[in-house]
Amino acid sequence: MSLTQSKSRLPTIRIMPLCWLIPIAISAACILLTLVLSARTGTPLSDFYRDANAIAGHPPYFGFLEYVTSITMLMTGAIVLFTALTETAPSRETLRFGALLGLLTLALGADDLFMIHESVKSIHPILSEKLVYACYALTLFVMIVLYYRQMLKSAFIFLLVALGFLFLGALEDQFGKLFPERLEDFWELVGFIVWGTYAVITAVDIKRGVLDA
Question: CA 123, 166, 179: angle at the middle one, nearest 5?
Fold first, then answer.
């Protein structure tokens, strides 16, 4: 191995203990959370790992659209967050914008997968579905105020379209019977996919330095 190749590998070798710590910490946290939930709810441990459709005896395509939206948001959120954390060329404001967008996208994806907004009240009476929505709206507002320069240089029309569809879905969820039956889920499907598209485009723009103020 040449001296140049050896030097290029040195940073990775230095952080190798941290690289091992990450999967160990995540695995331990998931196992601990599973044990706590199993003890508090009396749910068998196997039910936390097995597919919900298999447990209920439903066909595997039940919840297909739910999985599509959740996976889309989680994947695209991870892409833009990873890009923001690993790039060095763009300005710090651009990287912070990308990181905040990535975290918000991941949060929305996790919420859609685990229906957090509908179950927070069981954690504490003061928590509610509207409070969760308010937190998302506040985060988006802060992102717009702090990083409006980067946002205006991004393909923000995708974000506006996504918010429009998600707003329609939220209206149907809160008030119901505004549209034909179950259109709420289709509004959210389109909204999340367009949002994910915006996140990926933003990640590409960060790498290209397009968003630098």
Answer: 105
